[in-house]
From TrEMBL, chains A, B:
Gene3D superfamilies reported in the protein's UniProt record: 3.40.50.2300, lambda repressor-like DNA-binding domains (1.10.260.40)
SMART domains membership: HTH_LACI
UniProt-recorded name of the protein: LacI family DNA-binding transcriptional regulator
InterPro entries: HTH_LacI, LacI/GalR-like_sensor, Lambda_DNA-bd_dom_sf, Peripla_BP_I
SUPFAM superfamilies: lambda repressor-like DNA-binding domains (SSF47413), Periplasmic binding protein-like I (SSF53822)
Chain ranges of the HTH lacI-type domain: 13-67
Region (Disordered): 330-359
Biased segments, Low complexity type: 333-359
Record bears the keyword DNA-binding: yes
Molecular function GO labels: DNA binding
Species annotation: Pseudonocardia charpentierae
Keywords: DNA-binding, Transcription, Transcription regulation
Amino acid sequence: MAEPTRSTPRRRPTLADVAAHVGVSTTLVSLVMRDVPGASPVNRERIRRAAEELGYHPDSRAQLLRRSRSRLIGVVFRVQDPFDGDLVGGLYGAAGDADYELALSAVAPGRDERRAVASLLQDRCEALILLAPHSPTSFLAELAGRMPIVVVARSVRHRALDVVRTDNAAGLHLAVDHLVALGHSRTVHIDGGRAPGAAERRRGYHEAVRRHGLTDSSHVLPGGPTEDDGAAAARAFLDLHPRPTAVTVFNDRCATGVLDVLSKAGVSVPGQVSVVGFDDSRLARLSHVDLTTVAQNIGQMSHLAVTRAKDRLDGTDVGERELVVSPHLVVRSTTAPPTTTPSRPTATTASSPEAASLG
Amino acid sequence: MAEPTRSTPRRRPTLADVAAHVGVSTTLVSLVMRDVPGASPVNRERIRRAAEELGYHPDSRAQLLRRSRSRLIGVVFRVQDPFDGDLVGGLYGAAGDADYELALSAVAPGRDERRAVASLLQDRCEALILLAPHSPTSFLAELAGRMPIVVVARSVRHRALDVVRTDNAAGLHLAVDHLVALGHSRTVHIDGGRAPGAAERRRGYHEAVRRHGLTDSSHVLPGGPTEDDGAAAARAFLDLHPRPTAVTVFNDRCATGVLDVLSKAGVSVPGQVSVVGFDDSRLARLSHVDLTTVAQNIGQMSHLAVTRAKDRLDGTDVGERELVVSPHLVVRSTTAPPTTTPSRPTATTASSPEAASLG
DNA sequence: ATGAAAGCGCTAACAA
DNA sequence: TTGTTAGCGCTTTCAT
């Protein structure tokens, strides 16, 4: 019988193996492997060759154990969430620039944040970046007593926690300003419920419509972060009378559900209703969705999160604990001026909100 | 000035610190921390308390370095992909059952598979599970020379590689059988292009329509794995004449794009056209999508992947290198019997395909 | 430019 | 039940 390719071969080679193979000390091999000056070009070359030949990879555990610092930043993320996915991508880049490694720990069904964090603690991460964590502030604060903690995309007010987040209220100002500039006056905001950021976006909506003197022709409809939430809210929206001409939605996922229900109900977008999302996720960019949306600056947020972690580790004196990143509006094809066919003669002052639920 | 909560406190406590604090040997502390029998209840309690008090967490790098085995399985996944997300969730569970830890390494923009794998090699993983890898077989084979490699959701034929995948062809048989049972005869398959599994699904479609004697009234339309691909394919579909009454689509994402375009074109689903997806992703389950789809058994795949890695590590004699998991059909609301209103008098033999592009 | 030796925090013999 | 000792693979003084 021919021996098949061995899938469990001999013990992995160590520094000592490489050293022995070349006939030098482990010290020299260590230098060469780390690209540190102090070895003759000849030996450098021979050692490189031997390492390659033996298939040597340094053992990061041993390295980390020996080094005083791990240069490791832990990241807790929701493995299911596309926004977190984007952020993780950005974090890899930012960490590389800052000469740190990332250790990923996922939150998944059956694996909660505490477990994710615990595993990172064992890995000797020097700091933690938590993406939209839902743990109680007390837990986060306790962690912060151990090591620098950077919370991303959730607003937590605690003097030991660093926060990097989008200016959610400003995002809704952008959305409402855009709609008003197009000529809309009857608008609705579909809410994110208890999702992180939802309260601020709701507040931003209220502030913006008030600023435009449109409070009386504004609504907030209960919603949530998912497509399903959006679909349900859209059904409620269809019952509204007079029907608003524009909708701001908590996020893109939710907006997708809204769009789908409107489309199925024969309501054209942006012909009859304009829709604005939030996040500028891949969802929004799809050519057949092409959603006008408030974009979070993921690259900047990732960069700030890593930089803040690094600054804390370096003991750099940083000012604010909370870093608020400005969003910007991406206008695509789900917003347009309202059609000038009011269902009733225009009333200068809107009727009382209660009237809407009648008839 | 009041000293704010320190975010970079004293050196992390070690086993020795705990031991000194209690006044016992490190051995004893080690036993207790690992829940190994061999310590008196009294000491066990005192040590536990001291560890808690000092905020002690074992250093997994030191543990791993010292233990002969790391009991670590590396997972390479695409941080953006919802299907990979689901799998990672399943893998955590399966790994826990098998008493292994998972080390995650993401593929993201700017971080390719080689980098993801390299980092896992340094972490001294004993085996690697690669989710839908796109690296060339040669690279995977080379890896397999070092350690057990389990490839999930991609078909690779190599005697050193283990593969866990869904029976894609069978999935399309299920889909077509379902449609035919409903009474459909003019069908179309929207293809996945070069995506993993696309070729097998296409083949399954061809086999199934042939088996039903429907080859002449079948089409394959070029598509791809994304919503955009589906949207484009759907536009091509709308130009088909006579229009097929049912569509099988490469995957759920693509099917979503198809549904959206159909909806916007005023084509009712399942009234005028039935649609079947593939994956049973969260997308398909959304109440407003409610897509009939071929479900991959994620739980079983995760379990098999971990078990296979474990068996290789244990040297267990396993038979097949390729584990093929049967999918099943989830019937939801996008499939129904065809309406019996042919746009023209039924022709027994379909007109030549070229005719479609005319007029 | 090179090497010897100590030790990172832990576990696994072995002894007591 | 408890302690002593050696050493995992590496980096880091300190010699040479």
